[in-house]
Amino acid sequence: MINQSLDAKSQSAFPALRGLMRQRAAVERCDLCSNQIAAEHPHLLEPQNRRLICACRACAILFDNPGETKYKRVPSRVRYLPEFHLTDAQWDNLMIPIQLAFFFNSTPDERIVALYPSPAGATESLLSLDSWQEIVSDNPILEKMEADVEALLVSRVGDIRDYYIVPIDECYKLIGLIRTHWRGLSGGTEVWREIKQFYINLKERSIEVKSA
After folding, report:
1. Which residues, in sequence order, are CB contacts of 13 under 8 Å at separation 6+?
2. Which segments of the chain are extended strands (E)?
3. Using 50, 70 and 90 to split pLDDT, how confident is the model at 6?
4. Against a cut of 0.70, is the pTM above it?
5. Confidence of residue 31 (pLDDT cuts 50, 70, 90)
């Protein structure tokens, strides 16, 4: 049986994204040097506990190069994958209970992590490695995802089949939107309006990658 649990590590990502869920504070500051930062600013990730922090550009540059550092810089590029191949059977084998999830390579855990949004936050599903490897074989671009800081974001809600490789902070932003706006059993009209707008904005920022 697949083990699904509330992902405590991933909840630590939310403090850095509070400004994305509500009106921004008059002054935002870098979590490393305390200098004032713009509304749109880089994020750094602490892979060990999946914690996101806000950074000024000068501090973020310090973590551009790969190596053994506490933080990794979260990239800004968004790649839309219109030719991504994922059959209904492959999706069912992943045993994700909803039609929305993201997947990333966690270096501390030494495995692929699958998370899906819920009204309570991020929930983790333990993946079958064989199922994931089959999807990677069909979509070699997944081998180029940067560990910890990039994720495959999958939406199969209704007739929509959208696949992106996105910065990890975008995934937590989506979870935060759902967590903030969900009402009742079905979520309510507001949360689905927010989700739709999230994907519109994502598509506008994305680079289309034909070969998956």
Report:
1. 45, 50, 51, 52, 122, 168, 169, 172
2. 4-6, 28-29, 36-37, 43-46, 51-54, 72-73, 79-80, 100-106, 111-118, 121-125, 150-155, 162-167, 207-208
3. low
4. yes
5. very high
